[in-house]
Amino acid sequence: EVQLVESGGGLVKPGGSLRFSCIVSGFTFSDYTMTWVRQAPGKGLEWVSSISRSSVYIHYSDSVKGRFTISRDNAKNSLYLQMNSLRAEDTAVYYCARESVGGVRAGTDSWGQGTQVTVSS
Amino acid sequence: EIVLTQSPATLSLSPGERATLSCRASQSVSTYLAWYQQKPGQAPRLLIYDASNRATGVPARFSGSGSGTDFTLTISSLEPEDFAVYYCQQRSNWPRLTFGGGTKVEI
Fold first, then answer.
1. For A100-109, what is each residue's pLDDT tens digit?
2. What is the DSSP letter of B30?
3. In sequence order, what E strands does A1-121 have?
4. Mean of the pLDDT values across residues B6-31?
5. How far is residue A101's CA from residue B81's CA, in Å, rounded to a whole number?
6. Is the Cβ of A27 closer than 8 Å to some Cβ of chain B?
């Protein structure tokens, strides 16, 4: 069974930092591009960042570029998101997700349960 | 950036009725569009990829169509468990993804 389990969420003050982890199981982690997606309270889904299988290609949304860093450790089946200079508008549930093989013709086919981040003083 | 506009924002229907959800892209995305279902407190679930292909385990009452800039998700006969929010996602700029604002299907 495919599983993605996030951890690391919590309450942080504006300007602070937080690091998420996502540990996966049930599939060969190194075969898949991985993605972080967030959802602000009562709002829709927003793509945050993606990282290719061997970390060669990394992409960020404009809203987090320069503040967030995505990384992965294929030996540990783990995906990470380091978030710095946090703002109130970063408050959201953050999902770790797997991009199915096929790129443009595929989908984001597996999701973690999400972890909540609240940025507030 | 490709913008996706979903309509209507809310669809009020009864079990057994047909639901038709629309997603319009600001520029052509070919068939590189996916649909997701999200229930309260849950992660999204992939329903449709490449505009018209059902994901594994998705019931046949869900179907997708369209290409270019106009796409439709149809639920042929609503089941009680289908009342949820539905999002479209463009994958033309993969892995830079964007989502539509969502359509809530309510009773």
1. 998 888 999 9
2. T
3. 3-7, 10-12, 18-25, 34-39, 45-51, 58-60, 68-73, 78-83, 92-99, 108-111, 115-119
4. 96
5. 28
6. no
- Residues from chain A that touch B71, judged by Cβ atoms under 8 A, are none
> Quick check: B58 pLDDT over 90?
yes
Residue A11 near chain B (CB below 8 Å): no
Contact B92, B29 (CB under 8 A): yes
In angstroms, rounded to a whole number, what is the distance separating the alpha carbons of residues B49 and B32? 7
- Mean pLDDT value of segment B49-76: 97
Give the containing element (helix H, strand E) for B106: strand B103-106
How far apart are the C-alpha atoms of B20 and B8, rounded to whole Å? Answer: 9
| Torsion over CA: B24, B60, A102, A113 (sign) | positive
The sign of the dihedral angle between the CA atoms of B41, A43, A81, A120 is negative
Whether residue A42 has pLDDT greater than 90: yes
Neighbours of B102 (CB within 10 A): 20
Chain B residues with beta carbon closer than 8 angstroms to that of A47: 96-99
Respond yes or no on whether the N-terminal peptide bond of residue B59 is cis (omega within 30° of 0). no
Buried b (16+ CB within 10 A) or exposed e, A20-49: bbbbbeeeebeebbbbbbbbeeeeebbbbb
Q: Mean pLDDT, to the nearest integer, of B1-29? A: 96
Contact B67, B50 (CB under 8 A): no
